[in-house]
Predict the 3D structure of the following.
Amino acid sequence: MMLLWMAWTAVLTTWGQTAGRTTVVADAVTRAPVAHASLYAKEQGRFRSAISGTDGVARVAFEFRRLTVSHLNYETTIVRRLSDTIWLQPRYRSTAEVVVTNKEPEWIRRKLRQVVRTKEERYFSRQDTLGFSYRTQSIGTNSLYRYHLTGLMAMRSDGQKRYAIAADTSHITSADTTRLTDTQNLRRMLYEDFIMELDNGFIASHKWGENPDFQGQTKAEVELLFRSKNRTDDRGRIVIDTARCVILEATRQTGTRTNRHERMSAVLYSMAQLMSGYKVTQWTRDYRVMYALRPDGTLYPTRVTYKMYFANTDGEVTKDQQEFSEQTGGGFPNMEATLDLRPPTTGASPLTWEVLPPAWYLRLSSDAEREHDVHLSGLPATFEIYDE
């Protein structure tokens, strides 16, 4: 039997309308507002949090002695009183707003199309086993969840390009022991990889330009800026080695319109709207990847960071859907994760491998697929009770 299932999502409450003190979270270098930063504290055994809006404004409707302010792209800071502005130091070099003129250098598209032609042999053909460390953090209005998973990772050689992992350590930090293991963001980082998704259609649908101020490790490295021709909420940058024709880094930020277009079936989304009033109200995605270049010219992602803010409304959530969401760690609007990959150390081979299916947001799902998701949410883990 096939059922229409919405991916685990968060329904925003009216926290932003609650009376309380406000502050603006901003970038200490660019002075720009920082959207979807988390501000949280645990006082007298109760976890409370707020999330900054697209204008950087956060309403803190709770008392605190120590307030933690965090965002994946910034250094975490702790404040003891609420000021008008909380300044965050960026972890990454900021890229100026993409400005691409109609005088696009001809070599850019030619070079990118060459990357597309050679990516199978440069990126997908290797069957290496790599060590990995995956960390994810999700924050809701009244709860915090962290998960750290380490082990080995390999791509199965069955022609389907499916990753598999063998867990070494699995550790959950939460306010209680009810949460389960969450590999959703891990799967997103692996299967929504920039090089995997780069094709001639992507090249054609974006405008490209070179950053003349970029200084790479070699003269062959250049930074290319891009933005969508059709949607204003899709832009990013890549660093490309023009001599070896490989991408070394990529950053992409996408908003609600682009994410709905690329990550959801328009037909299924319309069906969900008619059936239950389901509507995606805000969906941002911030993705960064660095690739390791081997001496033979092949690549693998060595570090990936991923931040997603997903808010929706749903007029009719069934008991089965709510239970499935709870089983797979759902209910958080503000999520961020990091993945580090490295050559494995020598040692005994693990006995148990788990296949990771691609992550999903809205799809027709079979019972077997749902059971697989539930199985992955039940990986053995140790617990630590959160106490900031």
